[in-house]
Each structure stands twice: as C-alpha cells, then as structure tokens.
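Hey team,

Filing this mostly as a record. A colleague (T.K.) asked me to run one chain through the structure pipeline before their review meeting, and I want the input and output archived in the tracker in case anyone asks later how it was produced. No errors, nothing strange. Just documentation.

Input sequence:
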Amino acid sequence: MAGENSWVRRHGPETLLGAVIVAAVTTGLTVGIPLLADGGGAGSGAGAGPPAPSAAVPATAPPTCLLAECDGLDPKETRCAPDARTLADETAGSMRVEIRYSPSCRAVWGKLTGASVGDTIEIAVSPTKKQRKPVRTGRTQYTAMLPAGPAFSAQAVGTYVKGDPDRDIAPGYEVRIGADQSAVPQS
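Output structure:
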C-alpha cells in the first residue's frame, strides 16, 4: 500500500507539527520585523502611508554645532567627524598624531593612533584654550573639539607616557605638530 510509506508514517505527526510551527514562526518574523522597524506597530495599517518627512532622520544629518558651540564637544556625537580632514600629522614609532578639522563645524581636535594605554593627546588653539585626553583602552584616542575661526592656529602633542623601548623612544617623548587656516583646503 502506498499509505504505509507516507511521510507522516515514516517521520511521525510530531515532526509534521514541528515543521508547520517553524514555518509559521519564520513567516511571522519575516513579515513582522520589517513592520516593527518601520514603526508599523498598532495603528499603522495599509492606509497609513510612509512616515512624515520630519519623522525620518536623514542619512547625512547636519552637524549640531558651529565654532564656539563645538567647544569641548565630541566630534562624532555632534556629527562633525564625517567631513573631517587631517590638516597635519606626524608619526614617531607606532604613534601617529593628527590635527583634524571639520569644515562644516569649523572646529579642530587632536587624534592619536597606534598609542598605548596611558599615552595622551592634547590640542590647543591658544595657551589657555586646550583639550587633553589619555588613552584609556585600545590604541586610539581623540580629544574634544576647539573652535577654529578664520584665523586659527592649532598645536597638537602626543605623549609617549611610558615610552617605547623597542623603538628607542624614551618615556615622556612628545610628538608635536601644528597647523593653521592656511592648511584648510579651499572648496
């Protein structure tokens, strides 16, 4: 008989029930997750249409500060980092020091890569206007921003706090760089 070799007889009704449940859950997730991601919870039916333009955040949202408003703020959190350019850089051993500049925010900050925990990066636009930050984890650190007006001059210092004996770099060794408005690319 053909019925004796049926799929249900060979695998049992539990397997069939399990397959139906898996298919239902998969279908539910495939349909439900995109609806939830689009804000399609309760109350959004077929006639709801797309969200209002003000509800969506553009992929290239503008920065949240300009010049003095950026003083002491994080370049990533304020969306100043995406258009940033390196105005000056210098490498000693594995450490690279950069002066970064955002034309949309008109602000500068120091960036340190290839560093060790404890090494520091400092940027200054005047003897009293400075930002300094130590590397706490990883090998990269950047400072908070400082305003960069039409006639700015910035100096950055990366300090090997413990040195690098493998590269004959003494503890306290400083990598110093500077840049001013003449380094800003003209657009």
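Quick notes for T.K.: Strands lie at 85-92, 95-102, 107-113, 120-124, 130-134, 141-142, 146-147, 153-160, 173-180. Residues 3-53 form one domain.
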